[in-house]
Amino acid sequence: MPKLDVKDDIVRHNAELVCNKCDKAITGNVYCTGCYAQNRIGKEKAFQRKFWRKHTDPTCSECGKNSEELQAKLTIHHLDYDTDDATQYDTDRAIPLCRECHDLIHHIERQKIKGE
After folding, report:
1. How many alpha carbons fall within 13 Å on the CB side of residue 96?
2. Segment 17-68, tens digit of pLDDT
3. Fewest CB atoms less than 10 Å from the CB: which of 40, 62, 79, 84?
4. What is the 3-state secondary structure (H, E, C) of 45-109?
5. What is the pLDDT of residue 90?
6. Hey, is 6 helix, strand or coil?
7. Model pTM greater than 0.70?
8. In the β-sheet with 16-18, what is the strand arrangement from edge to edge?
């Protein structure tokens, strides 16, 4: 039986929601768990390529060291990680950080959430 497109690209097949990619039964999402994870990984990899093309000679936004000084790769810190995809994957809303500064920032954020 053919699928019919409905809001948010969710398709119905005999009144049952099915994944847009693999036709597995789902409960209210556009993709099943496996396809959703693949989609997120693809978006993250595309974001990383775009971010590093924009930051060709990056330094840590906190300590100012570059990857040669650190003898390690810099990481990407999303300033709005828990928001919608449009903001989360905006290269202007992310900064390069060394691993030490990145871990410190997340530690401080966790403490603020806990109220410490």
Report:
1. 19
2. 666 667 777 666 566 677 766 677 777 888 889 999 998 888 999 999 988 8
3. 84
4. HHHHHHHHHHCCCCECCCCCCEHHHHCCCCEEEECCCCCCHHHHCCHHHEEEECHHHHHHHHHHH
5. 85
6. coil
7. no
8. 4-5, 11-13, 16-18
